[in-house]
Design goal:
With 329 residues, this protein is of the alpha/beta class. Helices cover 40% and strands 18% of the residues. It has a 9-stranded mixed sheet with strand order 1-4-3-2-5-10-7-11-9, sandwiched between helices. It has a 3-stranded mixed sheet with strand order 6-12-8.
Length: 329
Amino acid sequence: MTATTPHVSTYHQQAADPAGSIRYAVTLPTFRRPEHLVKTLKTVLSQAPGAPFAVIVMENDADGMEGARAAKAFFEQHQVNALVVVAHDRGNCHAYNAGWAAALSSYPRLKALAVIDDDEIAAPSWLENLILIQNETGADLVGGPQLPDFEDRSRAAMKRHPVFTPHYDTNGPVPILYSSGNVLVGADVLRAMPQPFLDPAFNFTGGGDSDFYRRCKAKGFAFAWANDAWVMETIPARRTEESWVRARSLRTGALSAQLEHRARPGLAGRLRTVVRSLLLLAASPFRGFALWRRTGVPSAALFHFYVAVGRLMVEFGFINEQYRNPEKN
């Protein structure tokens, strides 16, 4: 993992309950979305998980600080345990790491922390349902659906495209999770995992969460899905354009190959990944046609093709800035 010395500072802190009483924390990374951040915070503060909880906002724009200022102004109007930290080093992994480390150090009796992004709105019982499934299954990490809310209402059919579809749709244990945009992570997981939790090597490519889950699974931690713990993710019109969806699909393939390389280093592992990529490419026309028929979305027919191509682009060094993480801004 990449070794770093993160630069993190505290911008605001307030308490409504003693730190020792806090059992849960909601961490919320933000980057240049102050208006939507406040919308998200309103839905977070409406949660009732049955135990005191804190909210931690991680500002990742140390130059602009719009999110930090908006969060501070919001928190000062409410009785809530709140913390605003600034991750001065740019990158989503730095932001997550700053918030997760702050949660552990600030709240010594923490049981778990949840993550929601600053372009999302939480369901009324979002946190309660995440905790419920964790208690029922004994899972260490619990994910929930990120449902798309399209700004361009005419593109609503795109919710059936794999780029916008949740990986699971049933409560209970699952093999692994893929996204950090809606997840509950047990504090014992964080105490057991080395820091930085998310590898900064993935700061601008995405995939830091998937890599973290892969390492958690290797340590024996268990995963579950809470289908009722949904959040609504605001999808700008440009993110339903063909060019964005294509870039996202290629990146999905590229990251899957990169994670396989990490899991199976060496020549044998690389050959195995290449063979798998070629097989996926060969199967993509058939899988794509079936996906088109099932979803009714013509552009979905190319999803598996783009994923396979993205995997092969990694092998031959053709991944460039165009296919780095399409920022959620």
